[in-house]
Amino acid sequence: MAIPQFIQDIRAKAGDTLLFLPGVVMVVFDDRGRVLLNRRADSGKWALISGIPDPGEQPAEAAVREIHEETGVSAVVERVLSVFTNEPVLYPNGDRAQYIDIVLRCRAVGGDARVNDDESLDVGWFAVDELPELGPIARGRIALALRDEPTWFAPADALP
Question: Which residues form the Nudix hydrolase domain (predicted)?
Fold first, then answer.
């Protein structure tokens, strides 16, 4: 997995300190209602397309860029599905990170799905009722993308 240069620069100073980072996760549909997935090179597992915005980059811009970089598909962002803070991740090199994901529903508008960088082993379109093995969070994000509901976020009680 390519580590963005700005994170390498931070790591050079912060070491393996827990970093709180933005992430974008995309549920991309084609005109047949299929979902775009990639089989990640780092884990070998199928996943939604995702990435880290560059400094100053808007989440929708990062989403469009990541989809194209990883899959060769051109897409547009339709709406925000959810905002979600994930559990911390411990990487094999000892680095720790926690991501706040902005999950976006996207629509493919061109390009052919293919492995387009070194972050994916495979890329493909899947009917919603024929998805490969995916974790419950990814399946929940796809289910949310199929509904016409307000943006989801973890609720918080008002302070006194």
Answer: 19-150
